[in-house]
Amino acid sequence: MAQRNPTLDRPVAIDTTAIRVREQGIERRARFRSISEPLGLLIALVVLLIVFSLLNDRFLTIGNAQNILTQASIPLIIAVGATLVILLGSIDLSVEGVMGAAGMTWILLTANSRGGEGLGAWAWVIALGVALLFGLANGLIFTGLKVPSFIVTLGMWYVGLGFATILYGRDLFPRLEDAALKGWTSQLTLGLPNAFWLALLVIGIGLAVVRYTRVGRVALAIGNSETIARAAGLPAFRVKVAVFAIAAVLSGLGGILATIQLDIGSPLVGSGLLFIVIPAVVIGGTSLGGGRGGILRTVLGVFLLTVLNNGLILSGVDTSWQSAVSGVILVAAIVFAAWSHRDRLGVAK
Amino acid sequence: MSLSSQRGRIARASAFAAAASLALVGCTTTAGSGGEDAGPIAKEDIVLVASVINTANPYFTANIEGAEALAAELDLPLEIVDSENSSQTEISKIQAILAQGKKVVMFVNTVASSDTPTIVDAVTRAGGYVSIWWNKPDEFEPWDQSDNFVAFQKHPGIESGRCNAQAIGDALGGEGNVIMLPGVADSTTSQTRVVGFKAELEENYPGITILEEQPSNWDPVLANQNARDMIAKYGDEIDAVWSADDGMQLGALQAFEDAGLLEQVKFASDGLYPDTVELMKEGYGNNAIVGETFHRGYMASAIGLYTAYLAATGEIDPSELPNEKRTSFFDIKCVTPDNLDEYAQYDEPGAAAAFVKELIENGPWDTEPATLVGGGGPEVLD
To answer: How far apart are the C-alpha atoms of A246 and A206, rounded to whole Å?
Structure first.
């Protein structure tokens, strides 16, 4: 038997300095990341603003700022709901269908050129109720029947469009005749468009839901790991249904606002919005895998896309080049903004 | 078996079923080949089919209205294809109808020019007859194909653009700035309207400057957004707005109304939608709408279907027809607030049925207000 090492026989003070330094490093990097990710996006946005304002001196005017805020309002409202759904690790593709269904319901129940007195506030309640039903259907089929949300909401997109098309019928476009509502979305209150105030309210409520309510916390837990969330006794079923319901009501609200903005009811009033909203959420850094991200980042994502579209038109980029240029700038902005967390995006598959 | 592997199996099984049914459609369609030699089709075997781009636009719903009026008058069954803005949906729905083995007489308002050869090929192989409206590739002419591709028909875009340019040019007194909202950038319908508009300004209104063109995909929502951006860019420099159709114009009007600029800007567009008629009548926005072109969706579908029907029943022989009756341009009318009332009759209840009666009496090329005015090849600037 070999002689024992005497130094091991007595308790030693283990030097943990290296471990602590490492831990502090990890913590510092995590803290840096949580600031640097949105910061990267913010810098990308500022760079765009500077470049566009150099290209056209009308870009950085109050008038155009109000225009951008009006255009961002509807995507912002819908993106709050979409962020919650994506935090769950699910997706809601029914946005445009629900917008059409709620928008058509609303205008046909409001004073419009097809006749009728209009139901006033009840039109809002019923239209948002229709949207809520779509959301509940999405949530219940997804959760109860365990059909992937991608499929359920894709189907519901077309159900919504179909519902709106049936309401539209074969008649003329129904035009809004309520004088108080005409142009309401872009009218200014305290210097900001009304629709944008509404968007701020929705964003505020959305933030409060995520931070301070059980629904928000459970949704994040489900996004991180549904198995653990369920094992911990969290009400996964109810929260998932609630999140889809919230998202659909916000899509419905977006549909009504889009109808007011356009002044006419059309089943296609939401066309193209899905491809602003979902990219905005992902660009903001909310992981498609769920559990990571947040509403404020989505707000940055929406602004990045809105400013890009507006700026390209104002800077006079040839129309046949616009779509390609927009794509290139977008990818560049994301690479720049997301460099620090490219290993954790969770979508680079 | 785990749930996921079960799901995998179901997915594979459904994929196989989908592939098999597609193959079946292919077979059935091929089985119907030889339609060219089959001779006239008995009237009782015919099914009328009208295919439209979507059903959420007054023009396309009017297409359906015209098809319904003709089906009622001829006492034939009618099927409607809603392409839902997608070439793929359009083609697969048409193939599904052909696969049922019926003898179809078809009107197709194609989603994209490039859909035409595929549709013509499928209809030909199934022994049906088709008229295509608005969009086809320039070089794909009916006389180079078969009798089953009876006709390509449209209203001339160049004429439409010229008519709008005159209205704007006159309203501005020959001086000012205009922005343009074309439709889908690669649509020949939109392109020809743009060409006509620009040519007329260049030739007769040199004092008018085109500030910018923003294609808006025939989409009122996009037109509204683009108009807002251009208002931000040019402000009150904009004196007039041209849109390639009335749907986009409705979106643009609202943007200018919101910006408080409506009263000082003039608008012109194509299609004279009934909504537009109302706005023109009430003098909306200091008579903002100064020019329109008149044509109706129900006339297009009735003319298209009836031409194909005559070929199917052997009353006309497409191969004997002059080229301008195979690739045909039908008249459009220039409308201003002054002559607006003349066109009210075509929007009264029962107008489609009345048009169809006259169409059957006078034939597809001689029915007012949409008489044959040219054709025989792609539209060119005169």
So the answer is: 10
- Please tell me which residue of chain B has the smallest CA distance to A311: B229
Domain boundaries, chain B: 44-155+297-375, 158-294
Does position A41 have pLDDT exceeding 50, yes or no?
yes
Residues of A in contact with B185 (CB under 8 A): 319-320
- pLDDT above 60 (res B297): yes
Residue A165 placed within a domain? yes
**For the CA atoms of chain B, what is the radius of gyration?**
23
Any chain A CB within 8 A of the CB of B275? yes
Å from B213 to nearest chain A CA? 7
| ipTM at complex level | 0.78
Contact A170 B61 (CB under 8 A): yes
pLDDT tens-digit profile of A275-308? 889 989 988 888 888 888 889 999 999 999 999 8
Does residue A347 form part of some domain?
no
Contacts of B278 in chain A (CB under 8 A): 113
Judge whether residue B141 has pLDDT over 80: yes
d(CA A248, CA A255): 10
Q: What's the predicted TM-score (pTM) here?
A: 0.82
CATH fold match for the domains B44-155+297-375 and B158-294? yes
* Number of domains comprising chain A: 1
ω into B369 cis (within 30 of 0): yes
Residues in B touching A270 (Cβ below 8 Å): 221
- Tell me which residue has tokens 């003070």: A13
Which helix (H) or strand (E) segment holds residue B51: the answer is strand B46-52
Contacting residues of B for A56, CB less than 8 Å apart: 233
Report whether CATH 3.40.50.300 matches the domain B44-155+297-375.
Answer: no
In a domain, A340, yes or no: no
Using a CB–CB cutoff of 8 Å, tell me whether B232 touches chain A.
yes
Q: What single-letter DSSP state applies at residue A97?
A: H
With CB atoms and an 8 Å threshold, state whether A262 touches B215.
Answer: no
* pLDDT for residue A156: 94
pLDDT digits (tens, 9 = 90+) for B191-227: 999 999 999 999 999 999 999 999 998 889 899 999 9
Q: B158-294 belongs to which CATH class?
A: alpha beta
In terms of residue numbers, what domain contains A242? 76-295
In a domain, A246, yes or no: yes
Q: pLDDT tier at A332 (50, 70, 90 boundaries)?
A: confident
Burial call B218-247: b when 16+ CB within 10 Å, e when fewer: bbbbbbbbbbbbbbbbbeeebbbbbbbbbb
